[in-house]
């Protein structure tokens, strides 16, 4: 077997798991005061936009504004926000005690029985609150049946997408949110470093993914929110192939994974070679790092999001890749927003002219796909400060030492 560089291989899952010491002493949950300020901002945006009420369903936006986490089902459960900043929860009667565990005894709840229409209840609630019902905003993550139910209960009401309120709040992260994401990303980068150490010829991608899940939990994070482990030619498939693969000498390795801390996401990709990198693998890896660096440098306050994507593509196209979304090249956008959802507003993609602003967080992952050969994705995230972009985790050092010396 060829010499493996800088901690690629040479250890075992048991040894790496035994070396993990969790420390969540610096993790602070989002405060009630911060949630209250979020609601006030949403109410202000509703007033500016002429929205008479906003219905949040079982989604990350419900959690963002209220702290209530619920699963999506066929029963309507959620919260109605008024332009005055009032919150009234709507839920099945039999779920009241469970909902109150989070929202408390003083919260306003409107309950519906199994044989009643929750949509009629929402219409009645709006009337009782003295809200006009010309224009109601509905959670963008709401299932169609909720929209359909509201439309039947309030046929003359205009139902609009609440993302003009929710995304406008959520895409600008507070220092408390940034700290939670920073913690999640530090954990995932360390898990990535340990995963590289357990590699050996013949190991299966499923075994590596199982280790990564255990390691995320050992550090005090959630289970892996997702995990892509690809070897060899399969690394050119952006979201990985189905089924098991087995590692061979000289394979490109691509691992993309994340976890959550207090429901805030990490999402980091590392690419490197098991064994000796060929000149071809080395040059493509360096090109990927250059494209990632160009995107970061382009991300300045006030610059349209699409210019960040364009900066990465310019590097790749100058090297003969693409153009556009053609492969060999970059077949997807350069980056996505991240927070309580792994992909959320806003996006680093052509056509998005929204200017970059403080508190926005993005993945930076201008992947190079060479179908039938290999792919390279380096993914780190940055957030915008008033002075410009700041990495959560710095770029991978080199193809030979992806986690540093």
Automatic annotation (TrEMBL):
Q: Any one Gene Ontology biological process term?
A: proteolysis
- Kindly list any coiled-coil regions of this protein: none
The transmembrane segments are none
For this UniProt record, the keywords arranged alphabetically read as follows: Aminopeptidase, Hydrolase, Metal-binding, Metalloprotease, Protease
Q: Report the residue ranges that make up the Creatinase N-terminal domain in this protein.
A: 38-171
Which branch of life, at top level? Bacteria
**Domain (Peptidase M24): residue spans on this chain:** 180-386
Tell me which Gene3D superfamilies the record gives: Creatinase/methionine aminopeptidase superfamily, Creatinase/prolidase N-terminal domain
One GO MF term, please? aminopeptidase activity
The family database entries (SUPFAM superfamilies) matched by this protein are listed as: Creatinase/aminopeptidase, Creatinase/prolidase N-terminal domain
* Listed PANTHER family: AMINOPEPTIDASE, AMINOPEPTIDASE YPDF
State the family named in the UniProt similarity comment for this chain.
Belongs to the peptidase M24B family.
> What is this protein's name?
Aminopeptidase P family protein
């Amino acid at each position: 077997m060829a010499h493996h560089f800088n901690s690629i291989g040479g250890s075992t899952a048991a040894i790496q798991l035994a070396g993990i010491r969790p420390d969540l002493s610096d993790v602070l949950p989002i405060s009630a005061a911060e949630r209250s300020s979020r609601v006030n901002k949403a109410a202000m945006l509703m007033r500016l936009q002429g929205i008479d009420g906003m219905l949040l369903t079982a989604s990350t936006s419900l959690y963002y504004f209220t702290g209530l986490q619920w699963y999506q089902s066929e029963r309507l459960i959620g919260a109605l926000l008024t332009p005055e900043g009032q919150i009234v929860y709507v839920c099945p009667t039999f779920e009241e005690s469970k909902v109150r565990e989070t929202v408390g005894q003083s919260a306003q709840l409107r309950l519906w029985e199994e044989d009643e229409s929750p949509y009629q209840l929402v219409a009645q609630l709006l009337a009782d609150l003295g809200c006009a019902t010309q224009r109601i905003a509905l959670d963008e993550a709401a299932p169609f049946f909720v929209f359909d139910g509201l439309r039947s209960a309030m046929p003359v009401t205009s139902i609009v997408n609440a993302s003009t309120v929710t995304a406008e709040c959520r895409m600008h992260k507070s220092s408390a949110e940034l700290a939670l994401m920073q913690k999640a990303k530090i954990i995932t980068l360390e898990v990535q470093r340990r995963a590289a150490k357990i590699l050996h010829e013949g190991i299966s991608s499923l075994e590596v993914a199982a280790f990564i899940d255990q390691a995320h939990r050992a550090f005090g994070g959630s289970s892996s929110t997702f995990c892509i482990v690809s070897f060899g030619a399969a690394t050119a498939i952006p979201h990985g192939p189905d089924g098991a693969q087995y590692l061979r000498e000289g394979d490109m390795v691509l691992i993309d994974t994340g976890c959550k801390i207090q429901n805030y996401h990490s999402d980091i990709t590392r690419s490197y070679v098991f064994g000796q990198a060929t000149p071809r693998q080395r040059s493509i890896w360096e090109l990927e790092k250059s494209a990632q660096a160009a995107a970061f440098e382009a991300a300045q306050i006030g610059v349209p999001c699409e210019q960040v994507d364009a900066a990465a593509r310019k590097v790749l196209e100058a090297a003969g890749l693409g153009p556009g979304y053609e492969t060999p090249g970059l077949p997807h956008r350069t980056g996505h927003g991240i927070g309580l959802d792994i992909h959320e507003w806003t996006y680093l993609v052509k056509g998005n002219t929204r200017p970059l602003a403080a508190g926005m967080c993005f993945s930076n992952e201008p992947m190079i796909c060479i179908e039938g050969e290999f792919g390279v994705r380096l993914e780190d995230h940055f957030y915008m400060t008033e002075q410009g972009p700041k990495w959560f985790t710095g770029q991978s050092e080199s193809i030979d030492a992806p986690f540093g010396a």
